[in-house]
Amino acid sequence: MRFSRNPIHTKENELVRLIKTLSIATATAAVLVASSIGPALAQAVDHSHDAAALHKLTLNQGKKWGTDEPLRAGMGRIRGLVEPQLSAAHNGKLTPAQYSELATRIETEVGGIVANCKLEPKADAMLHLLIADLGDGTSTMTGKNPKQRPALGLVKVAKTLDQYGKHFEHPGFKPVVVGH
User: Is 119:65 a contact under the CB 8 Å cutoff?
Assistant: First the structure.
């Protein structure tokens, strides 16, 4: 018996797809909200040395943090989106629409990473520092930070990818050549 012909199973499949879609959309929205309120929250936090240490990207007792396949795949795709555009950005050849499209594609990948994340809590906390930086970069790319050029947002995303490679175990992940 094939499930697709049974109306009950078809409705269940549609419901499962809807839930998955809503989960990814919710995760993406959470990233976008976090990226826009993150800087304000960071300013509101106690600025003692202890508080700063809690919000700093670090290694796991001198070693890189563990990763999972969705994280490695998503970060690899983000790297693949970013590096080829850096030269055009440095030469002033990307339009606002191209920056916006690229930012949307990066945000979609981040949403997928967040939705499928299975990292242990401390590694997850470190990852969220990078996600906030990615969100800040994409916000700048889309003009939400009018004091900075979109190219600087793309560079921030590239530098965040490099920080990911320095702090997370991802065999074969190479630094992004930012250049100038």
Answer: yes
The Cα-based distances of 75 to 51, 110, 172 in angstroms read: 28, 8, 12
Distance CA 170, CA 160 (A): 14
- Specify the pLDDT at position 145: 87
- Residue 62, H or E segment: none
Secondary structure (3-state) at 65: strand
> Which residues have C-beta within 8 Å of that of residue 113, sequence separation ≥ 6?
70, 71, 74, 75, 127, 131
Q: Taking residues 16-28, what's their average pLDDT? A: 45
Phi and psi torsions of 174, nearest 5°: -110, 150
Q: What is the mean pLDDT of residues 19-43?
A: 42
Cβ atoms of 70 and 116 within 8 Å: the answer is yes
For helices 7-44 and 96-115, what crossing angle results, to 10°?
A: 110
- Distance in angstroms (rounded) separating the CA atoms of residues 86 and 103: 13
* SS3 label, residue 63: strand
What per-residue confidence (pLDDT) applies to 12?
Answer: 52
Q: How many CB atoms lie within 10 A of CB 32?
A: 17
Q: Strands, E, within the chain: which ranges?
A: none
3-state secondary structure of 73: helix
pLDDT in tens, 134-165: 999 999 999 998 899 999 999 999 999 999 99
